[in-house]
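Why do we care about 3D structure at all? Because function follows from shape, and shape follows, mostly, from sequence. That is the central idea of this module. The next example makes it concrete: a single protein chain, its amino acid sequence, and then its structure expressed as tokens.
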Amino acid sequence: MRRSLSRVLRLRALVEEESRLKLERLAQEAYSIVHIQEMKRSLVSEYRNSIFYLITQGSGHQTQQTNDGLQRQSLHEDWLTVVRDSDLASSCERQLQILAAEAMGRVEVEREQMLQLRTERKQIEILLDHEMALQDIERERNQQRKLDDWYAATCHMKLHRALHSKPEKSLT
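And the structure:
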């Protein structure tokens, strides 16, 4: 039984290690999503600052002639572009927030599974330790029994020799 428990223990350790690696991978994915979400949040903040700047700069439809003859977009068109970009970044940030929550949920589920596997492995270790202790006790009992049998056989032989080694007295 000790051998089979040792095999089960090795398999459990491998399954636990696989689960730990999966947990690390999921945690890294969740961290990446949260990091990207924070970047998008920062981008949304920058767009809002740009909108504020455009609003405070003026509200006219000014155009300027550049050196190559092209006209610059009006302030209103700049404002609309920044608002669209801000809305797009906000939408992306909300979607990333949902993805981050789902990823963290997967991490928690995998963490619980890994902890369950660790508990099962530790239980098997305890069983194996207990089995080994029982086998040690049984081995000690067998050794003591053999020693007792040897001692009894030695004493019996000495007694037998003592009885048979005495010269018989003749009846005459």
